[in-house]
Amino acid sequence: MTLGVLALQGDVREHVEVLSSLGVDSLAVRRPVDLDRCDGLVLPGGESTTIAKLARTFGVIDALRERIAGGLPVLGTCAGMILLADRVVDGTADQETFGGLDVTVRRNAFGRQVDSFEGPVLVNGLDEPVHGVFIRAPWVEQVGAGVEILARLDERAVPGAVGRIVAVREGPILATAFHPEVGADPRIHAMFVEMVRRQH
Q: pLDDT over 90 for what percent of the chain?
């Protein structure tokens, strides 16, 4: 199994390190030919509009859309969640996404960089909470009928954010509003690796 990490901008190295800790080979994806070698793909955090523009510049945006629509397993974190969303609220005028996830996502939902925060997130399927790192993070405002909600923020969250959806799964797509690659907990990635193995 080889998992690609979209390596146009953002925290690529951190995802590669987590996958390596799980014994999974990874590949930096920048062009369509790279995608052909991937059994699954990670869309890292970073700046969603910048990543989308670079994907267009590198000529990979259409290939990404086609492979995702065709069932390629994808893990999207923070900006990656925005890039997977079919609908974005508070996006830029030229906001583009790759799509594939039947959700409406609010960009920079918690505020600016200074409003970033950390806290426990209880994810369906995991016994203990994961440590959620939210950096200019989105949240999910609406989900389609086929989308499973994996995590909502509880009463320990920032004011006004209790109950907000921060992790979802639809078919082979898993997305989190937080950064599971930050820290020493590989369980979100392990969940994704298992999704890829089941489909492989």
A: 78
Q: Which domain holds residue 63?
A: 2-199
State the total domains in the chain. 1
Q: How confident is the model at residue 176 (pLDDT cuts 50, 70, 90)?
A: very high
CATH number, domain with residue 61: 3.40.50.880
Closest CA to 177 of 99, 111, 107: 107
Report, in angstroms and rounded to the nearest whole number, the Rg of the chain calculated over CA atoms: 15
pTM of the model: 0.94
Catalytically active residues are 78, 179, 181
DSSP 149: E
**Per-residue pLDDT, 108:** 81
